[in-house]
Amino acid sequence: MLKVEGLNVEYLLTSYKVDAVKNVSFYMKKGECIALVGESGSGKSTVAMAIMKLLPPYAKISAKEIMFDGKDILKADEKLMSEIRGKDVTVIFQDPISYLNPIISVGEQIFEALMAHNSKISDKDAQVQAIELLKKVKIADPERVLKMYPFQLSGGMAQRVFIAMAISANPKLLIADEPTTALDLTIQSQILKLLNNLRKEYNLSIILITHDLSLTSYLADRIYVMYNGQIVEEDTAEGIFSNPIHPYTKMLITSSQAIYQGEVKRLKDKMNSEKEVNSKVEQGCNFLRKCKDSNAECEKEPPLIEYNGLKKVRCWKL
Amino acid sequence: MKQTIFSIQDLKKYYLVKLGLFKKAYIKAVDDVNFLIREGEAYCIVGESGSGKTTVTKMLLGLELPTEGKIEFLGKDLSKLLSDARSAKDFRKNVQAVFQDPFSSLNPRKTVKDILEKPFKVHNEKIEMETTERLLEEVGLIPPKEFLKRYSHQLSGGQRQRVCIARALALKPKVVILDEPTAALDVTIKAQILNLLIDLKEKYNLTYIIISHELPLLKSIADKISVMYAGKIVEEGAAERIFNNPKHPYTLGLLESIPPPDPKSAKTKTLPTLEGEPPSPVNPPKGCRFHPRCPYKFDLCDKIEPEKVEIYSEHYVSCHLFNRK
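^ Those are the sequences you sent over. The predicted structure of the assembly is below.
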């Protein structure tokens, strides 16, 4: 359904440029949930925004191919894009309260979303549909919530309202950019469950963007691990967790498992200080500066190689 | 018995809010909280946002005055300590803080060297060149000479948090209060910072007060845990017991809702969830504040507030299920 081939994004700043995304390719099928995992600055959000063409003007996108549902996104003009955005592809963000308009009631914002895709809808129908949507996202008292303003909502409620607006046009793809990072534990698991139910109900495809691997274990079918703008490993969720190959993936998995099991001490000798590496290697493997067992070969950039027929890894050590 | 550092009795903090021209209400941010913190302990307070955990730490730091109740630091009343300039300075030297966001807690116009020298200047203490270098080595920023010249924007999130920790340790405090010390960091960095904190605590016999909503993180470091819900402590006890044998239904729900980092585990597939949302602090539910979300609630719960019961030595639960009277 979605195919991205050789995506590059550069941010052209006044005095220098930043390669935010380097040669990223991925695909997803209908109803699938893929996860882009990586630390902040790894380019995972930029990838998602590039697909929606929502990047600022100083970002330069180039790619071999971006196809979504039979439409060529690369060639799409602004008119076609605004049809795709909000209707076929919608986004939910980390901090829902700041994306809701603070001076308009929740109800009116949902009506607006409904009208954007169906301008003939009557006020009464909009009301009925909005209540229906809020019930879908498990808001207990939808009539009352419609009259509330965003500042009266808790973080979890705001995220539910946001999800309700996102699914209002029956989208095919939902991009969830750190959807639960700002929420508490108990609310996080509620939202994860909600996303999973919606996915089944609407046969929705989800791109989950997160730095928290434990979220992906519940929701994702396949995982792309990103480091410094590149995909360093891709595999099914089970494959990533049970058999991580790339040193960065290994580090991610061991850290999150050690945290979960309360055995952080075990990691001690592996990483306890941030040494400054002076050699400013511009080329070569992205992970070179942090890699424990790098050698001379690593000063050339490794390709993304197929491994065991199942996963792809970007490392010379294979 | 180890020395008691902080002793908190019947602590309350109410904030006045105006709902209209004449209507007033109180936000009960912290309501009747009691606990003891002993030397060398990592005392952790967990709870969801709005549960009052940050308000408690603000009062411990003397940044907010309690509405009611008493805080004693080393046996002395905190409000008296703070009213005298000299003893207040001494208190500040002994109790340091590290905050969640290392991006906003470092002055962007100062170099790391300036930042680390500041505490010594404030307290009129001698600084030697090696002092700041040793501090940086202590927190794993190697080589220190390289880092001293930098400004905070030239550091990564993890490095900044290390500088914050170095600054907190500069004057050899007894207590370090850590408010969500790793919330803004990536997973691999979280583990590193946690390790650093564990090492430093052992080395200097520090007392930690850690505030967090990320329960799994605390498993590695906590000695004692208090679970707060809507301004009250619902369960308090040794960390091991809280994790392995939680008693209060809320603690149970919190622990259950942590997704394990393993797609094959049975828990990942079902992901047990605690339904509902935390109550409004202006108008908390009658009786037990957790009863609207509690799967085990019975007729007493929405009428009478449960009392604190000691079910093991120094393990307290406030829940009717354990009140055998």
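The longest helix of chain B spans residues 187-204. The radius of gyration of chain B is 21 Å.

Shout if you want it in another format.
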